[in-house]
From TrEMBL:
Residues 86-294 form the Smf/DprA SLOG domain. It comes from the Bacteria. Belongs to the DprA/Smf family. One of its GO terms (biological process) is DNA-mediated transformation. This is DNA processing protein. Residues 324-362 form the DprA winged helix domain. The lineage of its organism: Bacteria, Bacillati, Bacillota, Bacilli, Bacillales.
Length: 368
């Protein structure tokens, strides 16, 4: 078999060399007219021309042999047989939104429906330890976004990420999972079934070559891709030190919209989201709050949501039964015999579910 050493293949190979990161590749790509020159360069010459560390230059030059490239092309053929697709930053079908960020991945590996990478997307992120309120809100928002044709992006982590993916799939919607490890590795391990479902009905992407194990430092880095693929990022529940806030920072750096779901002031899982609202993030209660920010996308509703089919918890049913045309929160607290935090959480959840509406003065009424 004859292999043609295309520039694209050389970039993908360079991306797999140990300890060759985004900045190293950028320096090489901006210093050399062609990566083919690496076959003839001495390490010192590469170091002086590109400004990369001499030790790194030695590693790259030692690895950049025609024999290694031929073996790598054989590996790429095997990846393709296993359903792995590869995009480079120079490819025409590289996602436009992602290309606009400060450090777009030089190489992106994927499995599943690659067309989804060009759809209008919204990210949903949050804590790995959500409350029942957080789960309910995530399910509702994911399903609502689906009805308007949004693709839901998240990180396939435990908690809010998992709920967002599953709720989207259950609604026959489109979802993209961005991994912090190789595309062929399931992390966490208990998400095997979810991983397979997303490959079958959605898309999984990663900037890390197949076989790359999960490393703690990879996850904050991959968060820029979650926000980078999306027009906006919704934070459902997050503590003040939540990794989800890293995604928020990436979104802000990328000039993307940030939405936050209000939570109970007594819940540590909502301290981060409530703080985001104080700092100017848009408070979100329904998908309408998202669509209003993107009128130019024309995200029209594909099917209606039957509000009567939305399930309520026992506490929510108790609080909902007390809400009439107009009732004050103090009266709800007195008559429900629930604690303040429970009542507050129920009221927020019922608003998210579209069952009740808050009116000035601490009063609530049922939605008509």
């Amino acid at each position: 078999m004859v292999f043609v050493m295309e520039e694209r293949v050389l970039l993908i190979y360079l991306h797999t060399i140990d300890r060759v990161g985004w900045k190293t590749i950028e320096r090489i790509m901006t210093s050399l007219e062609s990566l083919h020159l690496l076959f003839d360069f001495a390490p010192l010459e590469l170091s002086m021309l590109s400004g990369i560390d001499l030790t790194n230059a030695e590693r790259i030059i030692a690895s950049f042999t025609k024999e290694n490239i031929i073996q790598f092309q054989e590996k790429m053929i095997e990846w393709k047989r296993n359903g792995i697709q590869i995009l480079t930053a120079n490819d025409e079908n590289y996602p436009r939104l992602l290309k606009e960020i400060a450090q777009p991945p030089w190489v992106l590996y994927s499995m599943g429906n690659l067309d989804l990478i060009h759809e209008s997307s919204i990210a949903i992120v949050g804590t790995r330890n959500p409350t029942s309120y957080g789960v309910t809100v995530t399910e509702k928002l994911a399903k609502e976004l689906t009805t308007y044709g949004w693709t839901v992006v998240s990180g396939m982590a435990r908690g809010i990420d998992r709920v967002a993916h599953e709720a989207t799939l259950e609604s026959n919607g489109s979802t993209i999972a961005v991994l912090g490890c190789g595309i062929d590795i399931v992390y966490p391990k208990e998400h095997q079934r979810l991983y397979r479902r997303i490959i079958n009905d959605g898309l999984i992407v990663s900037e890390y070559p197949p076989g790359t194990p999960p490393v703690p430092g990879f996850f904050p880095q991959r968060n820029r891709i979650i926000s980078g693929l999306s027009y906006g990022t919704i934070v459902v529940e997050a503590s003040l030190k939540s990794g989800s806030l890293i995604t928020v920072q990436h979104a802000l750096d990328q000039s993307r919209e940030v939405f936050a779901v209000p939570g109970s002031i007594t819940s540590k899982q909502s301290l981060g989201t409530n703080s985001l609202i104080q700092q100017g993030a848009k408070l979100i209660q329904t998908v309408d709050d998202v669509n209003q920010e993107f009128p130019y996308l024309n995200q029209t509703q594909k099917r209606s949501i039957r509000s009567e089919s939305i399930k309520l918890t026992k506490n929510e049913e108790k609080v909902y039964s007390l809400v009439t045309d107009k009732i004050h929160i103090d009266e709800i607290l007195s008559r429900s015999h629930l604690g303040l935090s429970d009542v507050y959480e129920c009221l927020l959840s019922l608003q998210i579910k579209g069952k009740i509406k808050q009116i000035p003065g601490g009063y609530y009424r049922k939605n008509t």
